Every structure is written in C-alpha cells, then in structure tokens.
C-alpha cells in the first residue's frame, strides 16, 4: 500500500495498513482474549502468542542453534543468540568440561530437569521449575489465599490487591501491573 494506513481505530485513532492488524488492535479495547491456555488461567489475543506461552509449560525449545546446539523457545531469541557466533568468529575458547569450541566465551553448564529435560543456569530456577511437575505451590497470597509456584508470581499478583501499576507506556501513559502486559501493549504503537 506504499506506506498508506487506511484502517483507523474508532476508539483511539491509531491507523493501520492492514485490516487484520486493526482487528487485532481492537482486542486491546474490548479486552477480548479468545485464545485460552488449557494448562493455566491465561488467555491471549493471538494464537501465536498462546503457542509461545504454552512452551513455558511443555519446556519445548524448537529453535536450535546449529553452531552450539543451544535451543530456544522463540525464533527471535535464537537470532539474537546467533549474532554472538558471527560477531566474534575469530576468537575461540575451548571448554574444559565438554571440549566444545566457543566463539565468544565459555558457556555456563546448565542444570537439566530430570523429568522434562529443560535446562537452567541457576539451581534456584531449577528448584522453582520443579514445582510444575510436583504441583507444589508454596507461595500463598495472605489476602485471598491464591497460591503460586514462584515468589515472583505472588509478588506480581499482589498488585491486583494494591492497585499498583509500576510499568508505564512512554508513548501513551497507560500503566500496567506486569512488564509483559506493557510489552504486549507497546506493539500497538509499532503497527506490527
């Protein structure tokens, strides 16, 4: 369309080059989230976002680096990682534990979950992950009794009770309780 944006949101005035992008954008105003995760309570505006989210439950990491065999949940994370291999191609280090030649630095040897194979760089992250398999939810909200597998999730949940919205969109001033919600919102300003 040569830079034209003929589709205009009647609520906020944002313009889009494609009708489909306008339809997705409208869900921000309607709060419509038709794509629900079958493993938890979360819902999403788009099916592709749900698919990426579900990998937090399954541990699936479908994007593998051909240079070092590390795997990633998202393609953009793989691409960011792969830049490390191309920018320092002349510098090689050899790991004494696995004898792998590395282009930029010695990698951390990851701790692997014995149940699903997911890898972690810190023991505390592995411990928190194991709650998914055991069903244990040791962090409890003192106000409503809701329980969580991670302390960080409880901390974010408390904002429901306090009304705190620490994450602010620099483009429009809208505030959010969670950083992930701010990042999702910011896409409307990019017309992606």
TrEMBL record:
InterPro entries hit by this protein: Znf_C2H2_sf (IPR036236), Znf_C2H2_type (IPR013087)
Domain C2H2-type: 7-34, 35-62, 63-86, 111-138, 139-166, 167-192
Subcellular localization: Nucleus
Main localisation: nucleus
Signal peptide location: none
Gene Ontology cellular-component annotations: nucleus
GO molecular function, one term: DNA binding
Gene3D superfamilies with a match to the protein in the record: Classic Zinc Finger
Record keywords: DNA-binding, Metal-binding, Nucleus, Repeat, Transcription, Transcription regulation, Zinc, Zinc-finger
Transmembrane regions: none
Gene Ontology biological-process annotations: negative regulation of transcription by RNA polymerase II
Cytoplasm as UniProt keyword: no
Family of the protein in this entry: Belongs to the krueppel C2H2-type zinc-finger protein family.
Function of the protein: May be involved in transcriptional regulation.
The protein's name: C2H2-type domain-containing protein
């Amino acid at each position: 369309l040569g830079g034209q944006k003929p589709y205009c949101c009647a609520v906020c005035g944002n313009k889009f080059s494609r009708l489909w992008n306008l339809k997705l954008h409208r869900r921000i105003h309607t709060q419509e989230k038709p794509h629900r995760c079958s493993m938890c309570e979360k819902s999403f505006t788009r099916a592709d976002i749900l698919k990426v989210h579900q990998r937090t439950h399954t541990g699936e990491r479908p994007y593998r680096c051909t240079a070092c065999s590390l795997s990633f949940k998202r393609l953009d994370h793989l691409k960011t990682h792969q830049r490390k291999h191309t920018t320092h191609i002349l510098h090689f280090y050899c790991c004494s534990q696995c004898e792998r030649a590395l282009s930029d630095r010695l990698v951390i040897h990851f701790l692997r979950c014995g149940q699903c194979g997911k890898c972690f760089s810190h023991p505390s992250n592995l411990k928190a992950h194991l709650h998914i398999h055991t069903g244990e939810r040791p962090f409890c909200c003192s106000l409503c009794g809701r329980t969580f597998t991670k302390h960080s999730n409880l901390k974010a949940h408390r904002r429901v009770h306090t009304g705190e919205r620490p994450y602010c969109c620099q483009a429009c001033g809208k505030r959010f309780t969670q950083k992930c919600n701010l990042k999702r919102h910011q896409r409307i300003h990019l017309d992606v």
